[in-house]
Amino acid sequence: MDTPSRPRSRPSRDRGTSVRDLRASDADRERVVTVLGEALADGRLTLDEHGERSTAALSARTLGELTGLTADLGPEESQPILVDDRPVSVLFGRTRREGRWVVPVKLPLLALFGTVELDLREAVLQRRHIVLDTMIVGGRVRLLVPDGVRVDVTGRSMLSTRELRHRPATDGPTVEISGTFLLGSVQARAPKRTLRQRVRGRIGRGR
Fold first, then answer.
1. Across the chain, which distance is largest between two alpha carbons, in Å?
2. Which residues are CB-contacts of 48 (< 8 A; sequence separation ≥ 6)?
3. Global pTM value
C-alpha cells in the first residue's frame, strides 16, 4: 500500500488534494496499459484507439487521467484503478473494494445488516491518517491491511465486537475506525505470513 509524503496539517480536518488529482506512479500507468492491450487483443479497441489511449496513459500525471482511459472497457470492479470517494454502503448484502483504489482522508461506511469489506493491500492512502466514519447496525466491517498499518477503533460500541489481528509499525500509517457500532462487529487482520516470512521474523527477533 502506498502513501503520499506526510503532510503538516491534520488529516482529519483537511481533505487536501482531490483523490482524482493524486499523482500516478509508473506501476499505475503500466496497469492501464495492460488493460488497453487486452482490449486491443479481443477487439474492444481498434489499433488507432489503442495507440491513442496508450500514449495518453504513459504521459498521464494523475490517477483521474488514467481512470478515464478504461472506464468504457469493463465494470467498476474490473477497473485497473478505482478513484471513488463516495460513501461505501450496504443493506442486507455484501460489498467489497479491492485492488488498486484510493482511500480518501475520510470515508463514510454504512453497514445495515450487511458486510463491508475493504482490502487495503494495494490501496493508495490519500494521507497517512485515514478515518473510516462508520455506522454499523447489525452488520460487519472487515479490513484486510498490509503489514505496517495500524488500525485504531475509536467509535462508540454497543453490544458489538471487535477483533484486531494486524502487525503495525511504529512509524506506519493509521486507519482510524470511528462512528457508532450497534449489534455489529469490526475486524481488521493482516494477511497470513508464508513459512519463509515467519522464519525470517523469528530470526530477526533473535538478533
1. 59
2. none
3. 0.77
